[in-house]
Amino acid sequence: MGSRYGGNKQIDGFGPNNETILEYAIYDAIQAGFGKVVFIVREEILDLVKDRFLDKIDQQIQVEFVIQSLQNQVPTAFQNPDRTKPYGTAHAVLCAKDVIHEPFAVINADDFYGKEAIAQLGTFLSQSQRSNQHCMVGYALKNVLSDHGTVNRGVCSYNEDGELTGMKEREKISREGDKVISRMGADVLEIDENTPVSMNCWGFQPDFFEETEKRWLKFLEENTGNIKSEFYIPTVVNDLIAQGKAAVKILEGGKTWFGVTYPEDKEFVIEALKSLHQNNIYPQHLWEEVKVSN
């Protein structure tokens, strides 16, 4: 919703030619061999999103638009006229189940994940043979903080095989001197700055939809009347891992990340993207030449 940023940051221009952050992920995904992009949007900005992206990418990759509404995938018995808050990231993914039938990645539209992350997702999803073998790109906590305020992050634990064993949301994280601290009320926790965290950069097999739907219906039953409850991807993933129904590999593609949480972040993002163009990581004009990976 961009409440702290103060606007629709998903369609704001940051690149040298007014590119959105999401355009870089789409560009990287095309190069990595992805064949379709699905925009999950609020109905009130659907036309804005189409105007912003379609002319640039509809000749490059198949495009679908899905509305995350308070009715989509919500049985009539659970629809609450008093609710205005979106149901969260796992519900957003579930809204796309009718247009996705293949392995897929999930990202935020306002985060820059880097070429390595998108390439790693593409490689994993194209090679994995197990229907319950998913993945996420891990980022070192020290690389995903903001200089302009606190952030919330999904802090990961993992086993010797590099698979996720659990994730816990830590709130109000910031650097304090030479330490990284999370402050949640009276709970003050120091976190190792090299700990991998989730930036909502996932890779899933199609079976994820079925498992998510089961937990979605249970969530609705348990939260009847709670108009602020949210259904998150990490909640589903943690449950699948705990029940032994899925394995989630932590990929090492998280080399570069930046995003816009606060208005003050914008200048840094503009300069970071400008530098990537100057260093030929991206062409001068993003959509003049798109090379698709084999």
TrEMBL record:
Give yes or no: UniProt keyword Nucleotidyltransferase: yes
**So which domain of life are we looking at?**
Bacteria
Pfam families linked to this entry: NTP_transferase (PF00483)
- What keywords are annotated for this sequence in UniProt? Nucleotidyltransferase, Transferase
Read off the InterPro entries from this record.
GlmU-like, NTP_transferase_dom, Nucleotide-diphossugar_trans
Q: Name one GO molecular function term.
A: nucleotidyltransferase activity
Q: Identify the residues that the record assigns to the Nucleotidyl transferase domain, covering every copy.
A: 18-228
Give the protein name, as stated in the record: Nucleotidyltransferase
